[in-house]
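Changelog-linked ticket: iron/sulfur cluster example.
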Amino acid sequence: MDFWEELWKKEEEFFDSGSKEFRHETSFVSVSSIAEQYYCEYKLENEFALGEVPTEAKETGTALHAELMPTERITREEFAEMVGRKEPTLGVLDVWGNAGGLKVMGEPDHIIWSEGRPLWVIELKTTAGDPNPLWEDQENQVRIYGLLLDRMGFDCSRMRLAVVRVRAEELGEEEKRDWILKITKALMGGGVLALEAKHRGMMKVHLLEHDVGRAETAVRSKAGYWLKDREPIASASVGKCRACEYNSVCVKSLVRAS
Ligand code: SF4
């Protein structure tokens, strides 16, 4: 059995193994949920209890995301053929695996491949504010994607991680259209500083080394919530509560909407 056939078989077995064993009767924990825990675990509680609350910022972010990193669905066989080429190709797949006592799954924004190896895992974060800080949730999200790719059996020895933060609403139409290709070129050709200089103040590419130990710790430190070993921990930041869409209903909110 070749690598891909074995991977797809293991993937089926993994997803067939779901048994609603985690908090809120979830079978699999998404990487984005773990990232959200770094913001505030009560947001997850509220999401499960009240459902997701649409906000203008989320809707704008989703639309910009689709514009900057468009994807097209292809078959598994086409994917395997495409990412197996020597010249770098862009392709994204579901990532999954066991980590920190959890069954974790997710979908990175983009991955640059060559000869079946992931070279870069890219996470795009749109913002209306300063793109220079890298928040803990954003860092850990991309780290965990890297960990899962490693667990799936890919050769990650040359893989690096990038979180691209951008004030996307300020980009022109042409820049949006070419965005992912520009990022790819900059990452592959060492042109990140030049790209940042061109878009000074509007974007920042945060580069990280793939580190299995740090990623595993990132999951493990949040796993107790899903394993029901402990109760959720609320944010202690007034600023986070102020920006939170649940602040008018959350029992742990540090602010009250007037
Ligand atoms: S209001 Fe504050 S404590 Fe409640 S979910 Fe939002 S960030 Fe967390």
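Closing comment: Example verified and attached. The first helix runs from residue 3 to 16. The two ends are 62 Å apart (CA to CA).
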